[in-house]
Structure formats: C-alpha cells, structure tokens
Design goal:
Alpha-D-Glucose-1,6-Bisphosphate, Chain A, domain 4; seven-stranded antiparallel β-sheet; 7 strands
Amino acid sequence: MKEQTISSAMTSMNIQAGKADIWKKVGFYEHVNKQPSWLLRLSLPVPQQVEGQYSNVGDICRCRYSDGGYLTKRITRLVDQNRIEFEIIEQSIRFQDTVKLLGGYIEVEEVDESRSIVNMVTYYENRISPTSISSIFIDKVIKTMHQFVIEDMQQQLQDKFVGASVAMGSN
C-alpha cells in the first residue's frame, strides 16, 4: 500500500490595516464575489452557491461549484481575531480523486496598528505520481487561490475606507 503524505501550501501577505478590521473581512475562496483569474478558472471549479456559517466552532459551510461538486468545511478552532481553522468533511469536486483537500487555516498577525500579515495554509494529499512534479503545480494553484482571497480582503478594506472618506468629505 502506498504511503500517504500530507502536504501543505502556505501564503503570507501584508495588508495595510489593523488586525481587528482585517478579521471582519476574513473569508474563504467561495466568499469572494469577483471573477477568479484564468489560472484559477482553468484549475479549479468556480464557486456557485454557498450555504452555512463559519463564525463558531462546529459551524459548517458548504459550497456548490461549477462542476456540480461540493466542498464542505467544518470550523474546528477559533482564536478570536487571530486564527480560524477548518477541516474538509465533504469533497466531490472534479479533482477529488487526485488531490484530497484536508483543511487549513487563516491567521491574522498584527505588525502594528495599521499593518498586519495574513497567513493562509491549505493541507492536502497529493495522489498524482510523480508527486515531486505534480506538487509544484498544486502548490502554485493553491497559493494563487490564497492570494486571490487575501487580495479580496485588502480590496474590501480599501473600499470601506474610501467610502468612509467620501462620506466625511460630503459634509
């Protein structure tokens, strides 16, 4: 029997905002409303419909994707305004037989009151041989997805601050 190896992909990005503001925008790939990049659309099914919550331990969030499959996450640990951990409890999306997603976390680390670092980690099992080659592509796709999600958080925060500045300037 082939030994199963758990791999991880990690992305860290700086965001120009305080930890508390960023934490309010933390979400997953399926919560981003803009169109994914060509690499993500080519590699991953596109989120179509999301149901459930992800604000408390035990919450379940289920997403239907463009290939008709589902991915369901259960929140396993929350550290207030710092870290959300999850496990994948259902996966029926198109690459389920080659890459098994296992879970991961999103973490916000404050640098100072106006800068923070967001870390995203995804754990997976690569079932494609040779794993040394396929892992390069899998890591690239996962890290591109992480970057897409973190950039969306940054954009939401910029939109919030621009909206607040415009509202203050109109008085």
